[in-house]
Amino acid sequence: MARSIRIQSAGAYYHVMARGNRREDIFHADDDRRFFLHTLGQACEMTGWRVQAWVLMSNHYHLFLQTPEPNLVAGMSWLQNTLTRRYNVRHRKWGRLFGDRYKAVVVEGEDRYHYQTLMDYIHLNPVRARMIRPKAGQSVLDYPWSSVAGGYALPAAKRAKWLDAGAGLKAFNLADTAAGRRGMVERLDKRAAGEETKSCGVPPQSEEVDARASHLRRGWYWGTQAFGEKMREPAAAMLRGDRRPKSRAYKHTPQARAHGMAEAERYLKEGLAAAGLSAAELAQTKGSDPRKVVLARLLWSRTVASQEWIARALKMRSAANVSQQLRRLAKRRSGPKLPGELEADLRTHEAA
User: Fold this and answer.
1) Are residues 341 and 198 in the same domain?
2) Which of 108, 239, 317, 332 is the most buried (most CB within 10 A)?
């Protein structure tokens, strides 16, 4: 069977889900979950993603996210590969962590009904899995590994910057205040206690629904039928290989800041010039050279470039060497002494 195409566009919303290989657990302890969230945060920093909701179960995860730039595929490739590599190192295993291809349902996020229902579907997943029992007096807050307890119930200063809680609260006409956050939890608890466990948070399905539409468990889009028809043209264009230029207005917005490989190439070119490293000198310079290491850190933290690509671009032997040098740099109390021009260039990129 042919693989379904990934529809990518600036500002698109997605419901992303991935399961463990052979449906085996991908989270064995809370440290695994904390590690996942740390890696997700790195992916968001690289790509500019804004996460609307998330939940970590035993053998799968759900994300509701927005991509200000059309970079879902590049970001998910980095996220899944990095999670697999780090999991295998932590647990002394090898091979695949995830099963089939991750599922990415394009969402009509600007439509309040579809935004709200997806939010609740994700946040009430622990209820359907009987990990919390509302009718026995438990709250959604009693499950710590969702964006309710891990984000929406927290003040802004205590939650991850990549969680767009302000937008999530606004979708339910709630302010980002103590009262608004409490209202979010109370609303979910009321719904959890009043609905059947197995279908809690699952919206009713109309008999006239478009068969291609997602029911939050199948289908390729979650939205109105008009939205589904609108999404068919980007999919067809991608199959044709079309690459439509962005509008002039888009180019002047913050979302126009690209995190893809073109941006990695730009960072590399500017960084090497500021470091005074020519192509010939690059090949003759050790992989542990401070200039190479800080440029590797910039590329790794600000773009979706892989460590394999960074190793080739900076002549640092291997991805393993890049990883080792970055770990060593992270452990230092102060960074290495660099040429003034390179220091200034790095500060400019870090502030961007």
Assistant:
1) no
2) 108
Q: What amino acid occupies position 140?
A: V
For residue 98, report the phi and psi dihedrals to the nearest 5 degrees. -100, 155
- Cβ within 8 Å of residue 195, ≥6 positions away: 201
CA distances from 48 to 110, 137, 191, 288, 295 (A): 19, 39, 32, 29, 20
pTM of the model: 0.73
pLDDT in tens, 18-61: 999 888 999 999 999 999 999 999 999 989 999 999 999 999 99
Calculate the dihedral angle through the C-alpha atoms of 176, 129, 44, 46, rounding to the nearest 10 degrees. 180
How many residues are present in the chain? 352
What range does the domain containing 269 cover? 260-351
Q: Which residues contact 139 (CB under 8 A, 6 or more apart)?
A: 132, 185, 189
Task: Say if residues 318 and 302 touch (Cβ distance below 8 Å).
Answer: no
Q: Does a structural domain hold residue 64?
A: yes
> Which amino acid, 269?
K
Could you tell me if 324 and 213 lie in one domain?
Answer: no
Q: C-alpha 290: how far from its chain's center?
A: 30
Angle between helices 30-47 and 290-302 (to 10 degrees): 90
Give the count of alpha carbons within 13 A of 225, CB side only: 5
Task: Name the nearest CA neighbour of 88 among 35, 22, 18, 11.
Answer: 35
Instruction: Note the pLDDT of residue 337.
Output: 62
Residue 276 lies in a domain: yes
Is residue 255 domain-resident? no
pLDDT in tens, 320-344: 888 888 888 877 755 566 666 566 6
Tokens representing 265 are 């190439």
Cα–Cα distance, 313 to 264 (Å, whole number): 10
Q: Find the CATH number of the domain harbouring 133.
A: 3.30.70.1290
Backbone CA torsion sign across 167, 170, 172, 175 = positive
Q: Are the C-beta atoms of residues 109 and 47 closer than 8 Å to each other?
A: no
Q: Is 285 helix (H, G, I), strand (E, B) or coil?
A: coil
